[in-house]
Amino acid sequence: MRAAFASSFNDADPLAGLTVGEAPAPVPGDGWAVVDVRASALNHHDLWSLRGVGLRPEQLPMILGCDAAGIGPDGAEVVVYPVVFTPSGEVSILSEFYQGTVAEQVTVPAYNLVPKPAELTFAEVACLPTAWLTAYRMLTTKGRVEPDQAVLVQGAGGGVATAAILLAQALGARVYATSRDASKRERVAALGATALDSGARLPERVDVIIETVGEATFDHSMKCAKHGARIVVSGATSGHLPKVNLRRMFALQLEILGTSMGTPEELSALMTLLANTGVRPVIDSIIPFSEARTAFEKLHSGDVFGKIVLDHTT
Ligand SMILES: NC(=O)c1ccc[n+]([C@@H]2O[C@H](COP(=O)([O-])OP(=O)(O)OC[C@H]3O[C@@H](n4cnc5c(N)ncnc54)[C@H](OP(=O)(O)O)[C@@H]3O)[C@@H](O)[C@H]2O)c1
Description:
Keywords: NADP. This is Zinc-binding dehydrogenase. Pfam families: ADH_N (PF08240), ADH_zinc_N (PF00107). By secondary structure, the protein is α/β, with parallel strands linked by helices. It has 2 domains: about 160 residues, Quinone Oxidoreductase, Chain A, domain 1 (Alpha-Beta Complex), CATH 3.90.180; about 130 residues, Medium-chain alcohol dehydrogenases, catalytic domain (Quinone Oxidoreductase, Chain A, domain 1, Alpha-Beta Complex), CATH 3.90.180. The protein is about 25% helix and about 30% strand. Strands 3, 5, 6, 9, 10, 17 and 18 form a 7-stranded mixed beta sheet that branches. Strands 13-12-11-14-15-16 form a 6-stranded parallel beta sheet. A hairpin with a 5-residue loop joins strand 5 and strand 6. The longest helix has 15 residues. The radius of gyration is 19 Å and the shape is globular. It starts with a strand and ends with a strand. NADP nicotinamide-adenine-dinucleotide phosphate binds next to helix 1, helix 3 and helix 4.
């Protein structure tokens, strides 16, 4: 079957190790199901994989991709929940231990198939299992956001960030979002949030901060937090060792909360929220599978606003 996979690692030039070509079709184990993928979506995680983060050379070739939606074994339309336990009981995301989703087919435990709501397209639901699920859990389970509270989203162009902007608004919050890029700030404003340059002073302190940028923005996140605020961290794109002002942390009783992905139940709740509110993922582009390399190049360029989706029917 055709697939996009990491055939080697290259930290400086991650795309050097990307191969788009033929890979063996998956053989499902007991209790596992094969999904015919209709759409997949890319994540920053795929670039980490091509750099060798979280993978060992003996695992190569590894099909990339955490996100997919398609047709399950009984013909049902499904979304693939990407978190799978390894035989030794460790948590892994597809493409870390088991083969990923940027392929004609993917196999996962049957438990990982979540019904796709009819209101959402394959391209839309393919955006959800990693970035949108992470953003949903950051705001709800971890951030405990309430209507009329204020939320700051750092690095607004990213997949998690654009998801957080729209979901926070759907949950009734006032949203501020920072970006280094003026054109991204315009697009953030069009989504209904107050767009600010990275590091800019906010008109008010906020209740919840969505952090995926890390070192470059963390001090600003601390300064924007009001008493009792939750700074929720799911990524550190710019570096993972920021200085933390502990005096501010205890004086303002701030909570710094780490989180990864979410549960299948949270994925279902997220899809219900989208179906009921009409909110839809921001899709940067839908690219035919036959041009998969272009999609990875776009992700790597950083010139992205929202999710890059691969259409597996073309
Ligand atoms: N733990 C989890 O479950 C989980 C799930 C999904 C993602 N993640 C992680 O979360 C992070 C975000 O992933 P993503 O796929 O949404 O998008 P991404 O490609 O990492 O983009 C994130 C945004 O970060 C900002 N950024 C990058 N470098 C920066 C810098 N030096 N200074 C300031 N801002 C910078 C950019 O915003 P602007 O250009 O707008 O400034 C960019 O749009 C990644 O590190 C990823 O690994 C974790």
